[in-house]
Structure formats: C-alpha cells, structure tokens
C-alpha cells in the first residue's frame, strides 16, 4: 500500500493563551514540558488561560425564550400605565367579566410574579387589551380625553402568547387569557377572531375535561378552583349571549356541565361588608342565562320544520307547552329572594363594592326582560305582547346610570339586538296598522334610548338615526298609500254617508290589504345588532 511521505500538517491550536488571544498572535508551546508558549517566553510575561470561554454557534436573539414574555417600556408603556389598565379592568369590566380572583392577582402583580412566563404574560396582555379602549382621563375643562394608547399592541401580544396546541393551554392563566380575548373580540366586533378563540377555548375544555369538576386535579388550590368556576360560567354566559345575537349553537350546554357556582368573595368581609357582597347577584345572572339557553332551544325548535330531511326520530317531544312558565316561575321566585341591593338602581359612586352591586342590578334588568320575552315566544305570544315586553325593557334601561352601561359596553346593548331579532320573528306576514303602531312605538323608544347613550357609546347615536330613518320611510310609504286610496274613493263616495257606514269603512280600512305593511319593509329594520357587522380598529380577518 502506498503511503503519503509528505510532511504532516500541524493542527491549529484549539485555544490561545490570554496574551496571544488579546493580540491575535499565534500561540505555540515552547516545548512539550514547558507550560509557557513561545510568544509569552519571548516577551517575558506569564502564560495564563484565565479568561472565560465563550460559547460557539449562533448568538441568542433578543425576544427569545423567557425574555420574550416580559414587559418592555417601549412596547407596553410604563409600569404605571399597565397598573392603570389593571385598575381600570377591576373597576369597569371585572364586575361582569370576573374570570380572575382580584386579591390573588393583585398580590402576584405587586410581588413581580406577573408576568412570570408565557401564560401569565398572555393573561396580563389580555387584561390590558380589554381595558385600553376604555382608558380616558379628565382634562382641565372637565372633558374626557383618550390617552394615546394603542389597544392593538396589547391584543397582538396576547395573541402571540396564546399557543396553537391545546396541550399547551392547560394552565388556568392561559384559559383566562382565551376568555378575555373573546370578550375583547366581541366588544370590538371582530367576529372571525371571536369564533377562532371560542374554538380554542372549547377544544381546551374538551382536552382537559373542564366541564366536569370531577376531572380537575385533586391538588388544585382553593383560589384556582374558584377562578376556574368563574371562568367556566362567565364563558357559558358569553356563549349563550352570542348564540342569541349571532345565531350560532350553544356548544357547552348547561345540562351537560358539572361545575359549581363561584362562592368566594374577593373582599375580606366584615359585618358591614356583607351588605355589599355582589357575587350573589352575579350568580343569579348566570341562572338567567341558563334559563335563556333552554328558551332559545325551544324558540328555535318551534320555528324549524321537522320533515326537512330523512330523519326518523322527531324532536318535537322536547317541546313543552309550559316550559316558559316553569322557567319564569322559578326565576321570579329567585328574584324575589334577592337582597334589595340587586333590585334598585343607584347612581355611580366612589364605593367600589356598591358600584359592583349596581352592575349586577343593571345586568339583571336587561337579562330578566330578555328571558321574559323568550318565554312569551315559547307560549305563542302575540306581537303586541312582545312589543309590550320590549317597551318595559327600554323603560327600565332608561333608569340605569349611563356609566354602568358604558362600562358594560357593547355587550349589554347587544341584548337590544336580541329583542329586535325576536320581534322580527313575529313578522312573518303583513302587519295591520294597529300592530305596526305598537312596533313603531318600540322602535322610536329604542332610538331615544340609543340617542341618550350616544355620549358613552359612540355607535349608539348612529344606530338611533338608522332606526328613525327607517320609521320615516315606513311612515312615508303608509302616507302615500293612504293618499292614493283616498283619491281613488273620492268619485265613488255618495253625497250622504250614514254613520254606520262610516264605522264600517274605518274598520275595513284597518283590515284593508292595501293598507297592510309589506314584510320587506319590516324584515330590514336596522336593530342595534347591526353594530356587529363592521370592525373597529384592526380587521378581524388579520387575526383569524
């Protein structure tokens, strides 16, 4: 075998001494026994290897790993601003969206334990994203000015921290972040993002067995169990609400859930504090939504044909003639047993606990009337009865302080959309003028209510104008028909008309098909639910 007789190439030293490394010189040992290198020997310096070796390979990039889930003043604003957003959440949103435990959250925040990782970072950003659109200050003239805070930044950060795999959503904080992003998407009218986050939430529910407390970890702390109960029932309410407003199905029904109601108040109650406890009212609102879910099922079942396909099993046996009465009798009894603080409206004050009771009162007023209207529909009520219920709701909402309505934002007033959709369901044929008169009164009263709320809800004023314009269009149509009918009857009128004939003529006029209101004019009524169409700020499609 041939061998390479050439000189062997000397290998490069893997590490130079400190002196050679600092000067970029070649470091070669003087001899095998001597510890010094040739260069250090020539310069008469000690040959050392004391410097810390650097890791080879790609350098770590900023924003990666744990450093990604930390606060940055340039991106998130100062810590004082984030603190202000947290305070605003607990002041305005928390009385309804109480998916966290306030005392525990504040202790972690002040102890610099939030954010401590991806999940807590997602939760913090979701809270800021919900509060940022509400952030306002009072200037020297007493007027409110919005601070220059971009809510999109917090929403983008929350979405970036939410993983795409349900196996990575098992922490309670990540589930809370999902719920708060759903609320933000609803209030900002981002329907695609709302459906996407709801999909993530329900996938995580199924993966964790969240709907059954028996499948929860036995070593779970009392506070974490309380937070999961709050989160579950609030998200259930949100789903029933959007089911009514947007028309989708309820994916997590009440009868298939086994989660207790929350029962631990945030405050360390004293004897005087018991009078300001508000969680009882919050739980009663959940009872209202549970009744609403069953009435929605009954409402839709009664309006869906049973023979549209080849189904062998009919479901009309679920329809109970007295379902609405049974639900309302239980809810009315529960309402009567509530403390008086949940039955009377109060002005907005500086007492946080008193205001939280006021939020429950406002929520009970709107939801109770909506459940009552749904109960009427299950018993084949008339349009006149539905209009009277809607009129009662508008009267009661008018007594609520606007600050409560503004803080509850679009969610509460979207229930007016639910009223509109239910009223529209009665309009399956032409309406007589007497029926339209009742409906017209409801439309104008709703427009007046929205007009009064324009200062605290910017979209309310435009919705009021849309309703008023639609009423004027129908009135113009009726007037033109009336003028046309009178002109046709003038040549045919006898010189003397008996009194009895005049009475008969008026009755026939009310029932005259020519004077009926065509359904196409009534099916296009711009109820406040039309707000849900366009998006505010970001386009929902980007995040969906």
From TrEMBL:
GO terms for molecular function: DNA binding; DNA-binding transcription factor activity, RNA polymerase II-specific; zinc ion binding. Residues 16-49 form the Zn(2)-C6 fungal-type domain. Coiled coil: none annotated. One of its GO terms (biological process) is DNA-templated transcription. This is Zn(2)-C6 fungal-type domain-containing protein. Keywords: Metal-binding, Nucleus. InterPro entries: AtrR-like, XnlR_reg_dom, Zn2-C6_fun-type_DNA-bd_sf, Zn2Cys6_DnaBD. It comes from the Eukaryota. The keyword Magnesium does not apply. It comes from Elsinoe batatas.
């Amino acid at each position: 075998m041939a061998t390479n007789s050439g000189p062997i190439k000397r290998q490069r030293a893997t590490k130079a001494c400190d002196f050679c490394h600092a000067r970029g010189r070649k470091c070669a040992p003087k001899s095998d026994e001597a510890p010094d290198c040739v260069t250090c020997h020539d310069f008469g310096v000690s040959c050392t290897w004391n410097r810390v070796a650097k890791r080879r390979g790609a350098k770590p990039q900023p924003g990666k790993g744990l450093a990604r889930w930390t606060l940055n003043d340039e991106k998130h604003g100062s810590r004082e601003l984030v603190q202000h957003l947290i305070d605003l959440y607990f002041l305005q949103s928390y009385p309804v969206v109480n998916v966290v435990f306030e005392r525990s959250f504040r202790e972690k925040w002040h102890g610099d334990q939030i954010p401590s990782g991806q999940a807590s970072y997602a939760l913090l950003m979701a809270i800021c994203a919900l509060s940022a659109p509400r952030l306002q200050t009072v200037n020297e003239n007493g007027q409110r000015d919005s601070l220059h805070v971009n809510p999109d930044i917090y929403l983008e950060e929350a979405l970036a921290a939410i993983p795409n795999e349900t196996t990575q959503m098992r922490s309670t904080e990540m589930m809370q972040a999902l719920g708060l992003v759903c609320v933000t998407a609803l209030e900002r009218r981002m329907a695609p993002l709302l459906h996407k986050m709801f999909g993530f939430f329900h996938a995580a529910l199924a993966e964790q067995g969240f709907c059954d407390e028996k499948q929860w970890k036995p070593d779970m702390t009392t506070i974490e169990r309380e937070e999961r109960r709050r989160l579950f029932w609030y998200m259930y309410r949100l789903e029933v609400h959007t089911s009514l407003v947007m028309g989708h199905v309820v994916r997590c029904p009440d009868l298939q859930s086994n989660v207790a109601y929350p029962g631990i108040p945030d405050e360390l109650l004293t004897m005087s504090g018991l009078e300001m406890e508000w969680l009882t009212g919050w739980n009663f609102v959940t009872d209202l939504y549970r009744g609403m879910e069953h009435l929605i099922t009954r409402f839709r079942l009664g309006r869906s044909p049973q023979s549209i396909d080849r189904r062998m099993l009919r479901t009309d046996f679920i329809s109970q003639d007295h379902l609405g009465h049974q639900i309302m009798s239980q809810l009315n009894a529960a309402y009567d047993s509530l403390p008086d603080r949940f039955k009377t409206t109060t002005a907005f004050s500086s007492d946080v606990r008193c205001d939280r009771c006021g939020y429950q009162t406002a929520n009970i007023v709107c939801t109770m009337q909506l459940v009552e209207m749904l109960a009427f529909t299950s018993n084949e009520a008339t349009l006149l009865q539905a209009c009277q219920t809607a009129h009662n709701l508008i009267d009661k909402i008018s007594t609520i302080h606007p600050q409560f309505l503004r803080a509850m934002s679009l969610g509460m007033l979207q229930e007016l959309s639910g009223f509109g959709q239910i009223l529209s369901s009665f309009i399956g044929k032409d309406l007589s003028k007497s029926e339209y008169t009742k409906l017209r009164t409801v439309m104008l009263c709703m427009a007046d209510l929205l007009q009064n709320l324009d200062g605290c809800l910017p979209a309310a004023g435009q919705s009021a104008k849309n309703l008023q314009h639609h009423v004027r269009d129908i009135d113009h149509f009726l007037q033109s028909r009336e003028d046309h009918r009178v002109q046709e009857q003038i040549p045919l009128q006898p010189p003397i008309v008996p009194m009895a004939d005049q009475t008969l003529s008026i009755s026939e006029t009310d029932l005259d098909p020519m004077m009926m209101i065509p359904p196409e004019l009534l099916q296009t009524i711009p109820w406040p639910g039309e707000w849900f169409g366009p998006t505010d700020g970001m386009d929902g499609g980007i995040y969906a």
